[in-house]
Model the fold of this input.
Amino acid sequence: MALRNIVKVGDPILSKKSRPVEKFDDRLHTLLDDMKQTMYSANGVGLAAVQVGVLRRIVVLDCGDGYTELINPEITERSGQQLEEEGCLSLPGESGVTLRPETVKLKAQDRNGKWHVYTADGLKARCFCHETDHLDGVLFTQRLAPKEMLEQEQK
Ligand code: NI
Done:
């Protein structure tokens, strides 16, 4: 395993769309192992492949309930909403309150190509949304909650 450099905001690769994974081979497994190590060493809860410069639809995450790998993830259902503070390893020192669904359903393949269905709420739902957004070139700064909503929350 090896640590990879995390791409920072300003690098145009972060706004590019990642391509689906088609080969579930040793190269993918090495990338996943490196991403896992890179995420934990940076104290992150999630990392998308584009953040280590690879434009493939791959995510690793651990929102406190165990390590998960998502290949070709796709959110299939969203419900409710949550306003919470969010940050990103590619935007060090920055944070903001985003508007995200409270609950999401997601399907994704594992490192061997098998499909799984996940349901998540709270932090994990936010994490699923944040990381799958990366695969479409979207950063959390494009999901900030409208000002009026934040004012309402404070009342
Ligand atoms: Ni991020």
In short: The helical segments are 26-41, 122-135, 147-154. The beta strands are 46-48, 58-61, 68-79, 82-87, 95-100, 103-109, 115-121. Residues 88-90, 130, 134 surround nickel (II) ion (CB under 6 Å).
